Structures are given as C-alpha cells and as structure tokens.
Amino acid sequence: MKNRAIALYSALGFGYAFLYLPIVLLVIYSFNASRLVTVWGGVSTKWYGELLADEKILDAAWLSLKVAVLNATISTFLGTLAAVVLVRFRRFAGRTLFTGMITAPLVMPEIITGLAMLLLFVAMEQTFGWPAGRSMTTIVIAHVTFSLSFVTVVVQSRLAQMDVSLEEAAMDLGARPVKVFLVITLPIIAPALLAGWLLSFTLSIDDVVISSFVTGPGSTTLPIVIFSKVRLGVSPEINALASIVVAIVSIGILIFGIIVQRQEAERVRSLKTASDRG
C-alpha cells in the first residue's frame, strides 16, 4: 500500500513538473542578461525595459485586451440569452437547428472557422461595403462566434440545476418575469456568468488561428506578434512578456480563489445560522 502511494505521488509530481517546470525556466531566463536564451549571462532586468519600449508589442497587447474584454462581454450577454432559451423554452420551432448552431463551434476546427469568417467578411465588404478591411471589428465578431458557444454551455448547465420553485414563488407574489430574472435568477447564476466571461476572455486573448484570418496590417493581436517573433527565434524579450502574462494570470487566480473561498465560508455560516434557528 505504501509503495503504491509513493508511485502515485511520484507520477503526480512528474506530471506537475512536466507542466510547470518549463514555465518556471521561462520566468528565470527572462532575467538573463545574455541575448541567447540558452546561455546564462547573469541576472538583469534589461529585457523588461526593452519590452516596455517596444511600441509594436504594446499596441498589440492593448488591442488584444480591448478585443478580449469586448468579446467576453458580448459573448456572456448573448450566451446567457441562448442558455435561457434552451433551458426555459423546451419546445419551439427550430430548436434542433438552434442547438446545433450553438454547439457547432465547440467541435469545428479553428482553421475552418477562421477561413469561413474571412470569406464572410470579404463577401460582406464587396456587397455592403462593411466591414472595411480587416480590423478590430472583424476580430471581435470572429471571437464572439466561437466564444458564445462556451458561455452558453456553462450557463446552461447552471440554469438546468437551478431550483425553478424560487422563480415560481416570486411570480406568485406578484413579481414580473423580468424582475424575477434580474432579482432571483441572475444572482444565482452569477458564478456561471463570471466563469463564462473569464473563459471567453482567455480564449480570445490566447487565439492565434482564427485571428490570423481576420486581422489586417493595422490590427495585429499579441499572440500573432509573439508567434511571428518566435518563428525567427525565441528572444529574452518574449520571455519577459510571457513572465508578465504568467504573473497577471497567477494574481487573477489568487484573487478569484480568495473571493470564492470567502463566498463559500459565508454560505456555510448562513446555512449554520439557519439550522440553528430552525
């Protein structure tokens, strides 16, 4: 039994090392004074300074951030509406087609989605004159197309588990359906909305394949800039950029974990207080 536990822990440790050791090395070598990433030349932060002075990377990062926020917000709004339709309205004409259109981007290869979006934008520009070229607008539309499906699945699963009697009780007391949704339903599914928003944000800011089809010369996202630089060889400047992204993500996960832990503790206290009164 003890040998089995040792083997399991060893396998677990090897798995985590395989996943996270390259990230740790990347962060360490971002402080390398040498331009060669494979040769250690001492500790230095000069690559962070050069990174902050690179206007191309800063512009791409700002564009990616704006696209990710817009995409996450729009996808969460539309995905929530789609989830409500699928859960609350069991039977309606075209439900099968609607469900298929919602879930198709989940299994569709990204290269097919990107090519289809490019052909659509070209046809729309030739027919209507909009969108004019490939810009932030086309990137946002393309990202919403595939992010919407992920949000719908997350919110739909939470709505399906929700106790409908809470909404029925509120309507029995005279509340309108819109007020019931805003006051009762929305706070209950808020964690799913947040999860969907964060998932859409991550998918958008990380996308390369679809973005490469719908970006133009004046609108290049950060992943595409990184990919183009890596093709010519990894530089310590890219290591510095990746280290900053890792730091931001780690801080975000830490903050989110603290918030969830506090909410769970508050829920446990509320349940205990209610049981004590009962």
TrEMBL record:
Chief localisation class: membrane
The UniProt record lists the keyword Cell membrane: yes
Keyword rRNA processing: no
Transmembrane segment boundaries: 7-31, 68-89, 101-124, 136-159, 180-199, 238-260
SUPFAM superfamilies for this protein: MetI-like
ABC transmembrane type-1 domain segment(s): 61-257
Membrane topology value: Multi-pass membrane protein
Recorded superkingdom: Bacteria
GO biological process: transmembrane transport
Places the protein is found: Cell membrane
GO CC term, one of those recorded: plasma membrane
Keyword vocabulary terms for this entry: Cell membrane, Membrane, Transmembrane, Transmembrane helix, Transport
Family assignment from sequence similarity: Belongs to the binding-protein-dependent transport system permease family. CysTW subfamily.
Name of the protein: Putrescine ABC transporter permease PotI
